[in-house]
Design a protein that fits this description.
The chain is an alpha+beta fold. It folds into 3 domains: 307 residues, Glycoside hydrolase, family 65, N-terminal domain (Beta-galactosidase, Chain A, domain 5); 315 residues, Alpha/alpha barrel (Glycosyltransferase); 92 residues, Maltose phosphorylase, domain 3. The protein is 29% helix and 24% strand. The strands form 13 sheets. The protein has an 11-stranded antiparallel beta sheet. A hairpin with a 3-residue loop joins strand 13 and strand 14. Helix 13 runs antiparallel to helix 16. The longest helix is centred in the middle third of the chain and has 23 residues.
């Protein structure tokens, strides 16, 4: 993708990569609103930090260290990390830029020079004040160990020509409670606070937790420790403390102009003092400093959430220069290894570096879930059912070790009636019912486990996995094979149809914004998805019999009619569904019956073909302008949602096209028509491929999404998840140039910093103005990786064999004619180099020859295929060269 992005260094402003490991530099960082950067570790510590050290940190919904923030709080909230230099006779200077006087200078010629350096996962802010002759560098990260902590190192340097004296004070307000208390009982919960001053910091241990769980004895302590040194000297403890926020602020003071700093007030506490019933302040005063020109003073701070019973000396562990360097180095090595599991080289080093930030996003989703970053202010932590399965797509590509048991445990969330739990517990295989106690068929939930399991089987060849017995959620101890779990989820949907013969939307499919068609709404889009699933399950049933794994397949006695029954009408199908649900509620025996695997396959194949035939006959549209596409939905009156012409207004959804292409419902001719229609009605050169056209205001019989302004979120934004799935579908069907055009558009949009204004990565969507929204925690990253690896670079599993079939465009090869991918497969690591010296286009080149670790391997002109027995004899690290011509 070498031509996708302009040279960032030539842009008026924006980040640029500074190394091959994804590090980037953003000059003028303060002149960008809404930026935030994640800091996290596998122990469950979750932070975000802005160029002015705003943001928050927490270990969960009920344990926020810093005050919770949403996106608007990033410019509103003064309660943030800070470090002050009190200057005699002058306004105090904030190393974080959080002073009233510095804010006044931001848009003037005297504005400070501020830059951000981002790496995996550490954050550096550099600030230079020419008028004061001072600079500050603040490095932040979360150590990659079992501690739930965030470390900060503040370095103050005299950059002028004369000595500078100042009084240093670390100032971090300790919120220390549930996000619920931000407004609900905010003051009352401060009365629970118990603070203790130690030699190196302030510890806040509320007496009770006071949130939706009730009044419980609190077990957590929220602590700030710090030490400082000058010019490499030994770390020194603070000389005094301000543990009460009101004492630090003073009467009439604010966090951006606190009296304790402005008036250089004496400290209010010493080591050993306690404080009860007040908002707690991590106010650490250090000894006065005079820096000669070029000299530096260094301060290390540790914010940590720990168990009250934990007596470890974290100040000793973290608060020194050598310790900080040690843990920072560990952090860099750990995250570098995480993002090196899957890498690409296309001749454009910027693309290669950007790709590594995308590989980080599924890891962040496993830590943050879909909450706990400023845009992600909905939910209370954790992931949903869809996230659980789609995030596994990336895991299968990046870190396949342990995926077998992870997938196996996930199936424990499926009920015998084909529905599933929606809240995921903290332990493997732990699920609970929806917290709102909504028991219904979640329209799209049955689709994702099948897709992910099919990828797993292809990647590993582990067909016996499908015959392992797993328990059912709320199944009274009943168990069934993984294949039975998959059958139930997909067969139930086949019978859960509306009057037009498509699967009922109920309250939303993948798009949660389509939530106002609960009675008669239908998702044509996901009907295609289930048609594809049923076909693949039929193939697996036949394969298991052919491989002598299973002559017969086990199914609940009550579920057998789901295979044999069909019905001549939607009403008849619903009768079959209702009969099964009734048996599940009343007198469900749980007895099993064995059915010939070929008979199961035939029944599934027939159902798949019935759905496909119905979609082709009833949902293919043509308007008077000569454009053709599939209808995607029916509203709550059972009325077709899509259609229309250019004079009256066109209604079209991208989702309605994606699954028809991906699941082989659309013919090749129809796919060409769809591409033409998408380019006409959904492609916007400014932002990319929109999720839908403008439906003309509120659609109360379809969903809340249409209450959003057009061009935002699920109403007509460039929603990266579905856009990438569209590209994936096109690649799968051999429409490579078209698919590449889509991926090229996504990459171009999200890396156009002057417009998009986000750090490297994939946001959830790009809005009407081209701005990236909801960074880091989006399923689009998993789909992007899946598409890049298995389709673009063609590194794909075929029932445990490794197929190498590139679909690279000519411009994706470097100047040397090479494109390279490093990925894992079958427990081994492969670096695959495609050499296209003539830089031919896809469709013009063939796979002429292949070398595996220097030894010739067979090609058939399209691909190189390594069988399982060939793979087993290879070493852990492998080099493959495929010559294209």
């Amino acid at each position: 993708m070498s031509d996708l992005k302009k040279d960032i260094s030539s842009q008026p402003f924006g980040w640029r990569f500074t190394g091959r490991d994804g590090e980037f530099l953003l000059p003028d960082a303060e002149r960008n609103s809404g930026l935030y950067f994640p800091l996290a570790n596998a122990a469950g510590f979750m932070s975000c930090v802005t160029p002015t050290l705003g943001g928050d940190s927490k270990t969960g919904q009920n344990s926020f260290y810093l005050q919770p923030v949403s996106i608007e709080d990033l410019h509103n909230n003064r309660s943030s990390r800070n470090f002050w230099c009190g200057l005699p006779g002058r306004e105090p200077w904030s190393a974080a830029g959080n002073s009233a006087s510095q804010l006044c200078l931001r848009f003037t010629p005297e504005a400070e020079e501020v830059s951000v350096t981002g790496g995996f996962l550490y954050h550096i802010v550099t600030r230079v004040s020419k008028t004061l002759g001072l600079s500050a560098e603040i490095v932040s990260f979360a150590p990659v160990n079992g501690d739930r902590a965030e470390l900060m190192r503040v370095t103050i340097q005299n950059t002028g020509g004369t000595p500078v004296s100042f009084t240093p004070t670390a100032a971090i307000p300790i919120y220390g409670r549930s996000a619920d208390n931000l407004r609900d009982h905010r003051h009352v919960t401060s009365l629970l606070n118990r603070a203790r001053v130690t030699d190196f910091g302030v510890e806040s241990t509320p007496a009770l937790s006071f949130d939706e769980r009730g009044h419980k004895v609190n077990t957590l302590s929220y602590c700030l420790y710090g030490a400082g040194s000058r010019s490499g000297g030994a770390a020194g403890a603070p000389v005094g403390f301000f543990p009460a926020a009101e004492d630090f602020l003073g009467e009439g003071g604010t966090y951006d102009r606190p009296a304790a700093v402005v008036e250089n007030l004496p400290c209010t506490a010493s080591a050993g003092d306690t404080l009860e019933g007040y908002e707690v302040m991590g106010g650490l005063r250090f000894a006065d400093v005079t820096l000669a020109p070029g000299q530096r003073a260094v301060y290390v701070l540790c914010m940590i959430v720990k168990e009250q019973s934990d007596t470890a000396d974290y100040a000793q562990k973290y608060c020194s220069g050598p310790a900080f360097e040690k843990f920072l180095d560990e952090n860099k090595r750990y995250w570098k290894a995480q993002t090196q599991a899957l890498t690409v080289q296309t001749g454009d080093p910027d693309y290669s570096a950007w790709f590594r930030w995308v590989t980080l996003q599924p890891v962040l989703r496993r830590i943050y879930g879909c909450s706990f970053l400023p845009h992600h202010d909905y939910g209370r932590g954790g992931r949903g059912w869809r996230d659980l399965w789609q995030d596994c797509l990336a895991l299968l590509l990046m870190d396949p070790g342990g995926v077998t048991e992870l997938l196996f445990n996930n199936f424990a969330g499926v009920r015998p009636d084909g529905r599933n739990a929606t809240i995921i517990g903290t332990r493997p295989g732990e699920f609970v019912a929806d917290r709102n106690n909504i028991r219904r068929v979640w329209m799209d939930h049955g689709a994702w486990p099948c897709m992910t399991t099919l990828l797993y089987v292809d990647q590993t060849g582990d067909l016996p996995f499908l015959l392992r017995e797993q328990s059912y959620f709320e199944g009274n101890g009943r168990t069934g094979t993984i294949f039975e779990h998959l059958l139930l989820q997909n067969l139930i949907q086949y019978f859960n149809v509306g009057d037009n013969g498509n699967i009922l939307t109920e309250n939303a499919d993948w798009n949660d914004g389509l939530d106002m068609a609960p009675e008669r709404g239908e998702s044509v889009a996901f009907t295609a998805f289930y048609a594809g699933n049923l076909e693949r399950l039929a193939q697996l049933a036949r394969l298991m019999k052919r491989e002598n794994l299973a002559e017969t397949l086990s199914l609940f006695e009550e579920a057998v009619p789901l295979l044999s029954s069909d019905g001549d009408s939607p009403a008849a199908k619903r009768l079959v569904r209702d009969a099964y649900f009734r048996r599940c509620r009343e007198g469900f025996s749980g007895r099993k019956t064995e059915t010939d695997a070929d008979a199961v396959a035939a029944a599934l194949q027939e159902k798949s073909e019935r759905l496909k035939d119905s979609l082709r006959r009833n949902e293919w549209l043509e308007n008077e302008d000569g454009f053709r596409w599939f209808n995607g939905y029916y509203d709550n009156d059972g009325v077709r949602f899509e259609g229309g012409n250019e004079n009256a207004g066109v209604k079209m959804t991208l989702t309605g096209q994606v699954f028809q292409i991906m699941c082989n419902v659309a013919t090749d001719e129809q796919t060409r028509d769809i591409v033409r229609s998408v380019e006409r009605y959904l492609h916007d050169p400014k932002i990319g491929y929109r999720l839908n056209t403008d439906a003309g205001g509120l659609q109360l019989k379809m969903g809340r999404a249409f209450g959003y302004a057009f061009g935002h979120k699920e109403n007509g934004a460039m929603f990266t998840h579905m856009t990438v799935m569209y590209a994936n579908a096109l690649y799968q069907r051999g429409f490579v140039r078209e698919g590449y055009r889509v991926l090229k558009s996504v990459y171009g949009s999200v890396t156009d910093y002057p417009v998009c204004r986000i750090y490297p990565g994939l946001p959830e969507y790009v809005n009407q103005r081209g701005r990236g929204m909801y960074s880091y925690l989006t399923g689009s990253a998993s789909w992007y990786l899946l598409t890049a690896v298995t389709e673009v670079f063609g590194v794909k599993g075929r029932l445990g064999a490794l197929s190498l079939e590139p679909k690279l465009a000519a411009e994706q090869f470097g100047a040397d004619g090479r494109a390279v991918i490093t990925a894992s497969f079958a427990g081994k690591r492969f670096t695959v180099t495609y050499e296209n010296k003539g830089r031919k286009e896809y469709g013009e080149y063939r796979a002429l020859s292949a070398l595996v670790n220097g030894a010739p391997a067979e090609t058939d002109g399209r691909r190189c295929l390594l069988r399982g027995d060939q793979l087993s004899g290879l070493p852990p690290e492998n080099e493959i060269l495929i010559i294209l011509g």
